[in-house]
Amino acid sequence: MSRQTQTMAPRPTRRAVTRGLAWSVPVVAVAGAATAFAASPIACPTLTAGTGWTTTYTGTLGPNSSGGQGWDAGNTTFSVYRDNGSSTAPLTITSTATFDVVVGATYDVSFLFNWGYGNGVASQSTGGTFTLTINDVPVKTLTTRTAAVDGNTSVNGVQPGTTTQTFTLKPTTSTIKVTYEYTITPKTEQANDDINVSSLNFTKCVR
Predict the structure, then answer these.
(1) Could you say which of 51, 62, 165, 171 has the lowest number of CB atoms within 10 Å?
(2) CATH number of residue 49's parent domain
(3) Which of 105, 92, 118 is nearest to 43 (CA)?
(4) In the predicted structure, residue 56 carries a pLDDT above the cut 90
(5) Whole-number Å distance between alpha carbons of 105 and 97
(6) Greater confidence, 39 or 180?
(7) What is the rounded CA–CA span in Å between residue 54 and residue 196?
(8) Is pLDDT of 169 > 60?
């Protein structure tokens, strides 16, 4: 097995198990006049999914026939369908970008997390983990399984599906680095689970 780290162009494709998945992620700013002693709305950050992102991998990619990885054509979702090419070591795929924020502001943020069995069957797929980091600090870690095989799940109840994830950001620096990190477990079954994550949606931005 070879291990390497290199920059790669996004290759978004979709397996049938998650085909038809669609969502839109508008940037929403809070409207209305600020009252005395209340936080005032500010412009939300502009972070264009798929633009200005650097995508790399560490490990061994599976064959192209297993699927692709990268931002979709609408630049709203980063998907990883590509299987791990190793049965003994993990494959890690990351996509990183920076954007400007206001120090001392408060940002409410959401995103959609979706996953499915790579072969459509729990016992024929192995799991994976998505980690969202801000300035290299983990904000959300979501895993498709509590165990690598046999259909045990932890993030979406007992079945694959989509959940809305939320967090609050209070930056202490004017520039923030956002990293989407996908860790795909060694492929000990026929396929790896598929993971789709939307771009960040800033739902409230105040200072």
Answers:
(1) 51
(2) 2.60.120
(3) 105
(4) yes
(5) 20
(6) 180
(7) 17
(8) yes
Per DSSP, 179 falls in state: E
Beta-carbon-side half-sphere exposure of residue 153 (alpha carbons within 13 Å):
19
Which residues on adjacent β-strands are paired with residue 138? 133
* Separation of first and last alpha carbons in the chain: 51
Supply the range of the domain harboring residue 84.
Answer: 28-206
- For residue 19, being part of any structural domain is answered with no
Give me the pLDDT at residue 159, please: 65
- 4 within some domain: no
User: For position 167, what pLDDT does the model report?
Assistant: 97
144-159 burial code (b ≥16 CB/10 A, e <16): bbeebeebebebbeee
State the Cα–Cα distance between residues 127 and 118, nearest whole angstrom. Answer: 9
Between these two residues, 87 and 49, which has the higher pLDDT value?
87
- φ, ψ of residue 150 to 5 degrees: the values are 75, 15
pLDDT digits (tens, 9 = 90+) for 95-116: 999 989 999 999 999 999 999 9
Token output for 48: 């264009």
Q: What would the two tokens of residue 129 be?
A: 């983990």
Q: What does the chain come to in residues? A: 207
Determine the pLDDT at residue 7: 44
* Residue 66 CB contacts under 8 Å (≥ 6 apart), including other chains: 81, 82, 83, 118, 191, 192
Average the pLDDT over 108-136 and give the result.
Answer: 92
> Do the strands 125-126 and 191-192 form a parallel or antiparallel pair, or are they unpaired?
parallel
